[in-house]
Amino acid sequence: YHQLRTRETRLSKFNQTEIKAMLGSYTKVLFVRDPFHRLIATFLQGMGISPSFSSFVQEVLDSGMHNGSMAWKPLVSLCRPCLIQYDYVVMFGFLRQELGHLLHRAGLPAGSLLPELTDSQVQWTYRWLSEQMFSELSAQQKKQLSHFYRWDLAAFPFSGSFLSD
């Protein structure tokens, strides 16, 4: 949206007319990832100070929706998929296939621009990690996490998520 080029990145700083014009002038792509996988990645990257995954999850639950880190906040609270009409939703674990399609739709040569992605290996690794990490959690933590991420689980097709059970 050419008339509103600014360093400001938050839509909330603009009025409704400006927001509508900006969003209408861009192709909007949303990258989503299973919330449990996001928690595992955050823990493994050392973003929590907890010695165990279970205590890290308790930190997340105790921080709540409003005080939590962007690394583990529910996606619907960050990207507002109910308010913003995204043109594409790209699922982590299917990046090669979906990015190829997205580049093709944009008229770009998909094959030469995509890095080598091994989606099946990523999915297998996260499945194994999820099983290990999920087994460390108490029944109460599992229930609380499912509740914490309930809107993400409802908004996106994370059918294989441990949190949707």
Automatic annotation (TrEMBL):
It is a single-pass type II membrane protein. Its EC number is 2.8.2.-. It is found in: Golgi apparatus membrane. Keywords: Carbohydrate metabolism, Glycoprotein, Golgi apparatus, Membrane, Signal-anchor, Transferase, Transmembrane, Transmembrane helix. It is an enzyme of class 2 (transferase). GO terms for molecular function: sulfotransferase activity. Belongs to the sulfotransferase 2 family. This is Carbohydrate sulfotransferase. The lineage of its organism: Eukaryota, Metazoa, Chordata, Craniata, Vertebrata. The gene is Chst8_0.
